[in-house]
């Protein structure tokens, strides 16, 4: 028998290479490939027109629902989930109207686990029905008041009825993370056996963390053969992380809504999920979804429910791709990947290097000088940057302020003028204001390309 040396038979001396010749070490932070993971093969169940209708400000009339449904379909979501047709007469009519649009996305509606609701749902023309029932002790005691035997019986009755109509059926528990694990697995196994298309896990109160999600989804993956849908509320800020972790653990479908709107503070936002998933598998996400439409969809929904896009929104927040600190700006201008994990161009957006502050650096100002189509040496740009920083220590600056200083500085250099415009900066704010006014007045008369000045 060949002798081994404790490294799977490899000859340590022969394989040894000096440090500089070794391949780079694998980062310990790169995910381990996992045969259960679906981060490169997931589907979105978009619930703006169901969960989103539960948002405090939401009221969608038929026309708005159709507009949103078409926009989501164009974006490429796999499913569009609608409010139960049993909720109101108009909800039923809207459900029928959207089913008749002939969208590529499958249309689902979301109902209680009850035959009355199921009968109404299948008559609307939907492609599938999402059934939900509370399984936690809280819901069993304080909501529907039914025991697990009743839940089993009604689940099987509803599932068999919907299946008999030839459309998809999902069965989900509600408040899954506060339900008894044995109860949960027992009912999921029972519905899987009779051919449900998906089982659903719902963190209805937003209490779960990624580790709990991983454990539950992974356990469930070992119990059922059907697809696994997950639904995460964002009460404690984990909705995106939980969705991602669920996919890692073998979930197949993620519920989202535009901007995350929903009951209380909502669920996994569509845009936030896209941000997370494009980092995991850019080709899959770009190949499947029209990412450049994200901003329009968010604006459409934000307007419909009368909210603003948050400043720190994923991808589309006004400063999502703004780089401010000098050291960041320098690196971004050299190679954007240095400080960007997501490429704004994938979403039809552009990055912005913020240069109107005391944190700016000469590389950012150099870039601005180029945008303004001006010509200065590096030494001159450094001097000009020092003036800008000096002034920015006294008051906040905007882009026009900085542009005016640059133009005035350029004017002085090119004409040999020695206007001591900026030397006195910093004594007090009145001085600064006066200087700025003067800089604006002078800068605007120097024949600078105003269109270039707007570009950033
Ligand atoms: Zn929900």
UniProtKB/TrEMBL annotation:
Q: Would the keyword rRNA-binding turn up in this protein's UniProt record?
A: no
Write the signal peptide boundaries.
Answer: none
Pathway, per record = Amino-acid biosynthesis; L-lysine biosynthesis via AAA pathway; L-alpha-aminoadipate from 2-oxoglutarate: step 1/5
| Residues of the Pyruvate carboxyltransferase domain | 42-295
Keywords from UniProt, A to Z, are: Amino-acid biosynthesis, Lysine biosynthesis, Magnesium, Manganese, Metal-binding, Transferase
- Would I find ATP-binding among this entry's keywords? no
Listed under GO biological process in this entry are: lysine biosynthetic process via aminoadipic acid
Catalytic activities: acetyl-CoA + 2-oxoglutarate + H2O = (2R)-homocitrate + CoA + H(+)
Which domain of life does the protein's organism represent?
Eukaryota
- EC class, as a word, reads transferase
> Under which EC number(s) is this enzyme classified?
2.3.3.14
CDD domains under this entry? DRE_TIM_HCS (cd07948)
- Bias category Basic and acidic residues: which stretches? 11-20
Q: Which Gene Ontology molecular-function terms are recorded?
A: homocitrate synthase activity; metal ion binding
Region span, Disordered: 1-20
Q: Which Pfam families match?
A: HCS_D2 (PF22617), HMGL-like (PF00682)
Q: Which cofactor does it need?
A: Mn(2+); Mg(2+)
Family from the record: Belongs to the alpha-IPM synthase/homocitrate synthase family. Homocitrate synthase LYS20/LYS21 subfamily.
The protein in question is named: homocitrate synthase
